[in-house]
Here is the input.
Amino acid sequence: MFTKISTVVVGALLSVAGMVSANGAEPTKFTIRLENTTKPDAFTASNGTKWSLAFSPGTAVVHTDKSVIFTSGKKDRGQGLEAQSEDGDPSTLAKSLAGAKGVKSVAVFNTPVGASTPGPITPGASYEVTVSALPGERLSMTLMRGQSNDWFYAPAEAGIELFKAGKAISGDITSQLFLWDAGTEVDQEAGIGSEQGPRQKAPNTGKAETGVVRKVQDGKSYSKPYNVMRITISPAMPAM
Ligand SMILES: [Ca+2]
Ligand SMILES: [Ca+2]
Here is the structure.
């Protein structure tokens, strides 16, 4: 009986603390997990080559303005999205965004869970990254789709609202991500293109495209993020 009463009291305290947080007194800490849900050698190219899909290190950006990384239908801004999309290197983009107008924080994720050195997430592997945000703030993420020339995953340019009616979002947000073409390098066939990440002789190698940032619409099921990855977000319980 006594145990049961204590549990009820603790629950009541937690919800009070949660309300304080939602009102903006304290930022909420969110843990984001990005998991590669594909299997090794799951895909076959037109020449019969089997290939696996991997995703690169990337950025998690908390922002208040709505288009801090790119604008759909416009050329890449030359702030590092090209290296993120072509070579899987988020470092230049992260540096450009840190302290930029409307940007609250920039985190780089580059080391798979359980690994000791940076690298891509291969089939079954995950990244985890933590961000802090106040109600009204938004989340954008960028990461490269391996086996492409210049394709990256990100939400719509406005980002993902981290709070709904003042309450921190929680759960699966994969459906809010899209696959984008950065418009910086001409596309080759996935998995075998000579200028794609795993095969190019050096970073930033390949035929320049001078196109615009746009959604990839190649009709392939593996180009839908929810068929190849799972992204979940968990807000931390407020500290007691
Ligand atoms: Ca392209
Ligand atoms: Ca390339």
The two ends are 24 Å apart (CA to CA). Residues 86, 149, 185, 195, 200, 205-206 surround calcium ion (ligand 2) (CB under 6 Å). The first helix runs from residue 2 to 22.
